[in-house]
Amino acid sequence: MPRVLAIDLGTKRTGLAVTDPLKMLANPLETIETFKLIDFIKAYIAKEEVDTLVLGLPTKLNGKDNEMTPKVMAMKTKLEKNFPSQKVELVDERFTSKMAMQSMITMGSKKKDRREKAGNLDKVSAAIILQSYLERQ
């Protein structure tokens, strides 16, 4: 069964998460350098069936665009061009970084580890975006 791949786009690093084959659970996958994103997805889709790409859409609290919103919209266009067989969907990502940090604290991650492993925060944020998407389906 095809999976859903979620993307928490950042200017330098991008967090990725993926569903299980039954599309019930969101699991953190990887944190990569943003400039490697398209190549990473191509390689991932070559080995795993993916039918949907979910991209976190950052906005301000009032719902208006923030400085990252245009970059996400440009990435959406790039994803649609590079992956015409996959649906590309946007999901509100407000508060996901805070939720990811709280989740890491709850799981017992030490402050030093959270600081040193910022990549964990990115992929946990992607998993939260993906779980939100799954719950809406």
In short:
The protein has 137 residues and is of the alpha/beta class. The chain has helices at residues 37-47, 69-82, 96-106, 111-116, 118-136, and strands spanning 3-8, 13-19, 26-33, 50-57, 87-92. A hairpin with a 6-residue loop joins strand 2 and strand 3.
Largest sheet geometry: 5 strands, mixed
CATH architect. name: 2-Layer Sandwich
Total domains, how many? Answer: 1
| Share in helix | 40-55%
CATH homologous superfamily label: YqgF/RNase H-like domain
Count of β-strands: 5
Which features does this protein show?
5-stranded mixed sheet, EC 3.1.-.-, 137 residues, alpha/beta, single chain, 45% helix, Nucleotidyltransferase, domain 5, 5 helices
What does this molecule look like?
The chain is of the alpha/beta class and 137 residues long. It has a single domain (3-136), classed as Nucleotidyltransferase, domain 5, CATH 3.30.420. The protein has five helices and five strands. The protein has a five-stranded mixed β-sheet with strand order 3-2-1-4-5, sandwiched between helices. Strand 4, helix 2 and strand 5 (87-92) form a beta-alpha-beta unit. Helix 3 packs across helix 5. The longest helix is centred in the last third of the chain and has 19 residues, at 118-136. It is globular, with a radius of gyration of 14 Å. The two termini are 16 Å apart. The model has no long low-confidence stretch (mean pLDDT 85).
